[in-house]
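Recall that a protein's primary structure is simply its ordered list of amino acids. Everything else, from secondary elements to tertiary packing, is in principle encoded there. The following example makes that idea concrete.
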Amino acid sequence: MAGEPASSPLADALARVGDRWTLLVVDALLSGPKRFGDLSDEISGLAPNILTSRLRHLEREALLVARPYSERPPRFVYELTASGHELAGALRLLADWGSRGSDDPEGLRHEVCGTTLEARWYCPTCEQVVDAGDATDLHFV
């Protein structure tokens, strides 16, 4: 259709996750199921109506499930699906990138030895690491 932006894997991903609040909700749920009040307490600055909107969006996108624990009044516990848990890697990369503009510009560290972590693309078929300089070798299919 004329006037619509071309779809790309990144545009598709952003359409599914939405905005920063959605990513913070996913991050909060990575540690396990939580109730609405727990999420509200954990994510400072997030208004209840926005939290409700983001939870519904994530449920429509099949990234989380809402399981009722009370009928009157209706109350739910929220839990990421397997697809929602797959966002953990992307969130780690974003957190690492974000940390480089903070007081610790070296980013995430390995808990065991303290070494700064690096994220790399790896091809399990060729058994080769693909460096960022080889961007022409990276293609979404």
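The domain at 1-103+118-141 is CATH 1.10.10.10 (Arc Repressor Mutant, subunit A). Residues 48-60 form the longest helix (13 residues).
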